[in-house]
Amino acid sequence: MSALVEIRDVHKVYKRDSFDVPVLNGVSVSVPHGDFLALMGPSGSGKTTLLNLIAGIDRPTRGQVIVDGKEISAFNETKLATWRAAHVGFIFQMYNLIPVLNAFENVELPLLLTHLKKRERKEHVEAALSIVGLPDRMNHYPRQLSGGQEQRVAIARAIATDPTILVADEPTGDLDARSAHEILDLLQQLNADHKKTIIMVTHDPKAADRARHTLHLDKGVLVEQGAA
After folding, report:
1. Are 227 and 212 in contact, with CB atoms under 8 Å apart?
2. Is residue 29 in a domain?
3. Strands across the sheet containing 88-91
4. Is the Cβ–Cβ distance between 7 and 55 less than 8 Å?
5. Which domain holds residue 125?
6. Burial class (CB in 10 A: 0-12, 13-18, 19+), 214
7. 67 in any annotated domain
8. Which residues pair with 216 in a beta bridge?
9. CATH number for position 220
């Protein structure tokens, strides 16, 4: 498989007052098309920073981030925001659903930034909610859903635009064991059946076991890489 994501000698340093705080120190990694990669490591290891660089939320201090042949680390903020909206689907630990919008409206949100007509948006939303197993919950509000169902709606929102890559930051961190198991089943299904490339930050070894590969970070460096 060819590389979808290439991280080349990436360094990330944050400024805190007059101090430099190094977070990533020369990380290089290649993620193939169709991979399901888990990023693991202790708190402060740099795994979320690396995820944010891949997703175009942040940019490296030094080094290159290349996604699908484009060096996104060289984009200006406007170009990066446009690229991110078109190519990245985000899945968060706390779902980040809008409480006053129902499931359909929450999933439709990223599509409002596209040129799709209303009918086309409706088709995308219904397809996404069907994939995550919630076609009968589209008129329900977040408060009427369980935590697992809320995360399914969030995943539907992430896939509605058919993104190039899905990034998930502790997607099971706020769920009970059964709901977490179901969400991981769904992520595996998206990877296997829908060929979605997924990069997931997790502290849970059981979650990491669902990935095809695991990458371990410690103090900003890659310490181990293995296959699930």
Report:
1. yes
2. no
3. 88-91, 165-169, 197-201, 36-40, 213-218, 221-227
4. no
5. 35-56+77-227
6. buried
7. no
8. 40, 224
9. 3.40.50.300
Tell me how far apart the alpha carbons of residues 152 and 111 are, in angstroms, rounded to a whole number: 17
Six token digits for residue 103: 């499931």
Q: Identity (one letter) of the amino acid at 32?
A: P
Amino acid at 135: P
pTM of whole model > 0.85? yes
Residue 163 bridge partners (DSSP): none
| Contact of 154 with 96, CB cutoff 8 Å | yes
In a domain, 26, yes or no: no
Walking along the chain (228 residues) 10 residues at a time, the average pLDDT comes out as 90 90 94 95 91 94 95 94 92 91 96 92 96 95 95 96 94 91 95 95 93 93 68
64 found inside a domain: no
Domain total of the chain: 1
